[in-house]
Amino acid sequence: MNRTARLTGILLALRGGKQTAAELADRFEVSRRTILRDVDALCQVGVPVVALPGAGGGLTLAADYWLPPLHLTADEATTLLLALQALGPSADSPLGPGHRTAEEKVRAALRPDVLAAAEREMTVVAMAPARPAADPAHAVAIRAAIRRGSWLRVTYRSLRRTAEHDLLPRGLAVNAGRWYLSALDVATRERRTYRLDRIDAVVPIPPPPGAEAAIATTDRSLPPYDDPAHPEIVIRLSDLALRRAEDALPTDRAIPLPDEDGSWELRLRCPPSELPYYARAVHAAGPDAEAMAPPELRALAARLALAAAARYAAPRRGEAPAP
Asked: Is the pTM of this model over 0.90?
């Protein structure tokens, strides 16, 4: 961090409340003497930094000082702060330190009366924050790989198993309160979506065998996940199954069926290669869920159900066959 950025950071930190020189030194990874020189530089350009003596003392800004305000209304400020809130706790955000400093800068740049009005509004208007990734360091590595266009070996827990995938990350997104990674899988030559909270390990790797062919295949004609050309999935769920399937299905898209009490219908489109995943999700829900379409999905779900029925119909070792 250069000195200009550090001076701005110190000013923003002091705008948020009293800080000791030692706390600022730890935050910006410099010596206490460097912080004191920076504070002196701020004072020379007219920033009123006050040094409070004693055991509870520290550095703070004069009570009547604030940064030049952004020309935002209270509604606009509320919108920005709610958007940051929706990304989840800054300490766990895949966006890293930028999440925290963005909120600091917004708050510091608002007039006190506008900030107070926005904070009052946020006591009655709230947004559920996105769930954090299992390890924020994974998101840091993924974002670095996206910027560099480099490959990762990702250990991923799906509904079936834990396996390693050689991926070329393409993007991160929040959907229904969860962070997702969109990446090219070299083994399948397809662009797939992975939940960040199910990633156990991320390791940078050189381009794996078949990388160039996989990139050429997907980049030539890559329809989006919900492309109209993809088959439409229709799944009916009981109210209980809807609640239980939140981790496996995009239940935010489900709509209640008016003619059937407590039943829901989920509709979405996906690449044909994803049908086995949705068949397993329906099977996991048991009799409280039914795959309605397409026929390929119904056939996959039926195959899983028949395999389970055959497993229970076969006598266990040492047991007599059922009459």
From this structure: no
